[in-house]
Amino acid sequence: MAEAVIKVRGLRKRYGELEAVRGIDLRIERGEVFALLGPNGAGKTTTVEILEGHRSRTAGEVSVLGFDPGRNEVALKERTGIVLQHTGLEPYLTVSETVDMFRGFYPRPLPLDEVLEVVGLEEQRDQRVRRLSGGQQRRLDVAVGLAGDPELLFLDEPTTGFDPTARRGAWAMIRSLRELGKTVLLTTHYLDEAQALADRVAIMVRGEIVAEDTPAGLVAADPDAVIRFRAPRGTALPDGLGLREADEGLIEARTADPTRDLNALTSWALAEGIELEDLTVSRLSLEDVFLRLTDEGDGEVGS
Ligand code: ATP
Fold first, then answer.
1. pTM for this entry
2. How far is Cα 181 from Cα 183, in angstroms, rounded to an integer?
3. What are the pocket residues of ligand 1 if the criterion is a CB atom closer than 6 Å to any ligand atom?
4. Which of 15, 48, 51, 298 gets mutated to test ligand 1 (max ligand atoms within 8 A of its CB)?
5. Chain center to CA of 118
6. Helix or strand holding residue 20 (H, E)
7. For labelling alongside 7, which of 22, 35, 143, 252 has CA 20 to 30 A away?
8. Are 170 and 159 contacting, i.e. CB atoms less than 8 angstroms apart?
């Protein structure tokens, strides 16, 4: 069996009346990119911060690289890297100076050139932090997390606010971390990101893990298909197919029998003289599965 870098059993966290994490189990293997997903308030940050050693737990067993993060041991901190959503870096230092400063905190740092190469900031090495674009600053945040050559990296929403090109760049960067053999625990609100990057994902809802698998496994576990098309606003849709407006003008329905339902739909459209624009039938995306699993309530944990 592969080596577990993170082992969690029966983890609970209570804030007064509110139980934010309700007895979760997790096992993350060395070299995995693992994504923790869930709606706002599901308990992801609480869980990750307990693993990082930044928050205490109410109950349960937690082992990170063989350590209990609750004991705040330096030997564990030297082997983990944390990239938070908002890192305040010194604006007047250059990229190299910033990375070097953090390298100085660790006994066996990653060589500067290697850090800059992994995050794709070689060309900006002499640029001051305040002159970096938002996406480049985020790369520098990751560079700082990598400076100590950690075995395990916590990446909290690494591409929030990125344009599509910067996001692809960040994905390439996370893939190169995997090639370096790093274990990555990623939190993200972008399902396509989890689908593209994660070896496995866990979906958290109301303090519990409701699904855990590879992205492909989660999608395959749901045999349904989705029919989508566009129709002019106000079109009277046929009953019995579960059609609903998903987005502006986009109509969709889940179906366990796409052949039959498509036949019914196209027969109706032909009879009514309606053109079904952009008609597609597809397997569920990870986002569809996520929305189904998190559908009950808004995901905010209750007490
Ligand atoms: P998001 O996606 O919005 O970041 P999350 O899944 O990370 O959400 P958490 O931040 O872990 O969720 O919060 C879980 C629940 O615990 C929420 O209801 C939140 O209000 C509550 N909570 C978080 N931190 C505290 C705290 N320090 N004191 C009291 N309640 C808290």
1. 0.85
2. 7
3. 15, 18, 20, 38, 40-46, 300-301
4. 15
5. 20
6. strand 18-29
7. 143
8. yes
